[in-house]
Amino acid sequence: MLYQLYETQRALMAPFSEFASASAKLYSHPLSPFTHTPMAQRVAAGLDLMHRLAKEYEKPEFGIKTVKVDNVDVAVQEQVVIDKPFCRLIRFKRFTDDPTALADMKQHPLVLVVAPLSGHHSTLLRDTVRSLLQDHKVFITDWTDARMVPTEVGPFHLNDYVAYVQEFIRHIGPEVNVISVCQPTVPVLAAVSLLATHGEATPRTMTMMGGPIDARKSPTAVNNLAMNKSHSWFENNVIYRVPPNFPGAGRRVYPGFLQHTGFVAMNPDRHLNSHYDYFLDLVRGDDDSVDSHRQFYDEYNAVLDMPAEYYLETIKTVFQDFALVNGTWVVKGTTVQPADISTTALLTVEGELDDISGAGQTKAAHELCTGIPKERQFHYDVAGAGHYGIFSGRRWREMVYPEVRRFIQRFNEDANKLDLPGRKPAKPSATPAATPAATKVAKPAAKRSRPATVKPAELAAPAQPAVQASAQPATKAPRKVPAKATRKTARG
User: What is the pTM of this model?
Assistant: First the structure.
């Protein structure tokens, strides 16, 4: 019933939103006589704010048309590589006629970015993708809004998520480097673990950023809600059926608008101040600040519905049973054992001020992946970064991305020297052996089983592995396709 009420309210507010938008232009357009009336700027600003508060936000586009490779502008085109009911695998194909840039692009490592299925669209990682495209061949998972998937397709479980990731890794090939951001760190670690257990090639590297590998460590408000409410509470209070005006009518989902409400409720003052500042910027004519606000909230307010089965199973598996760290997670008859991963290099990234995944939750992956040599394990704490700062914005571009780039480059160069396109699978072990939790990030471990902090410049060096002030190695232990060119266009 709540979903139907929300849709009814949205339908009623739509005409008001359009009226507010038109009225705002009436009081701000230079050719309108109303623009020259007293208080016109404030009236226009107020109406524009009303429009944005009442409007419906559609899924944004990635909008990445070009990137720079070797200071050359390279065209980028989105290509759907695999189209599954609940997800599309998208490749950002790069094109250039410049021979130097083309030669470099052919040598770039393959990267699969696994975007979170947690309320927002994969376009939330636009900044992540744009940076990676400078030095990598990039694929990304583009999850489908569950309300757009007809019920006859069937349900979507957490195990299906794991299977999707495995299929994408197999399709791209063993040379792939996997980057998981937030929620997918858990199913990605499970997917790679199962590949290793079954004797399949695993990715060259895994980069895990701000995810709840072990949600018991430094629990946040999000973790506490998931851990303190019963499974039945979630099923009875946040699961609803899609209304009849969508292709997925009747499907049980966790609606995106509920998740969005929860996000706003975590920091209501911050959002109120942001909207008030937007109003003042409109009055002052500060176009740069206005555009920045609109870009952020166009993305932040665009949400999707999650399949109920997937959402409830994630709550139970990750936040209530802690099945991954306890070694009790079974996927299609096989226990998930991260200790079976032996040759994939591992980098974990955490934000100092992350209020979604607390300190130590992502780093816990090192305690599980005991089969990976310690000189292939790294951890990086991002000073001053919140949850979004580790994959978007200035800190991502200036602090995190250089470390990720060096990490991937180093272990791809090592593999190429050894002529190893893939990875040698680990031998199955009975249970994942846990190692003592690392408590001091800044000091390298001497004889302890811990990932150690390293200096950024050392990651590219072949001798002693090393990421800045906290990336440590341990001691042992539907886009328009461009028209055909008259001459052949080189690809990368």
Answer: 0.82
